[in-house]
Amino acid sequence: MGIMTRFTRLCKADMHGVMDQLEDKGLMLKQCLREMEESLARKQAELNKVKAAFDQTRHDRQQFCREQEKLEGDLNTAIEKEKDDIARLLIKKLKTIEQHLDAINQHGKTIERRIASLNEQLKTQKHQHAELQLRSETYFQQSEHKRWEDTVSKIIPLSSCNTLSDEEVELELIKRKEVMKGGA
Questions:
Q1: How would CATH label the architecture of 33-126?
Q2: pLDDT value at position 8?
């Protein structure tokens, strides 16, 4: 390994260390949560659009089915009345509608698969978001507790708490006994 390679790695490592110290982990965590919430909102909006497209497809299918039933009735009437020219025309329209229905059914199946996929992705992302929220709450509570401990240790040094003399302990014991005798 050449000296320049080692020097480059040392500089990169030092730069990464400086960047890590500059970043506020709490702010980074809040930003990650915001980004996840935005991603969830986008995914939910996409799911809503796909569901709306599915509803439209279902509506279109119903409309074509009604038209197909009407044409079937008209076709039966034309055959009964021996109007072959009209019957041929109705058969062409009927075949076209059947093709549209096949296409709509295929499209509906594709949309249903997309909805299932989006639902699964959304469920997974919601679970990850909830997990990150829980972890972030724990992190913030621990940070707050650490700040509190640091503040308390600056105000009341721990060394002063442990240096009670035997006389101070004995005096406190006598005071408490008197309070108990007077209160009882």
A1: Orthogonal Bundle (1.10)
A2: 81
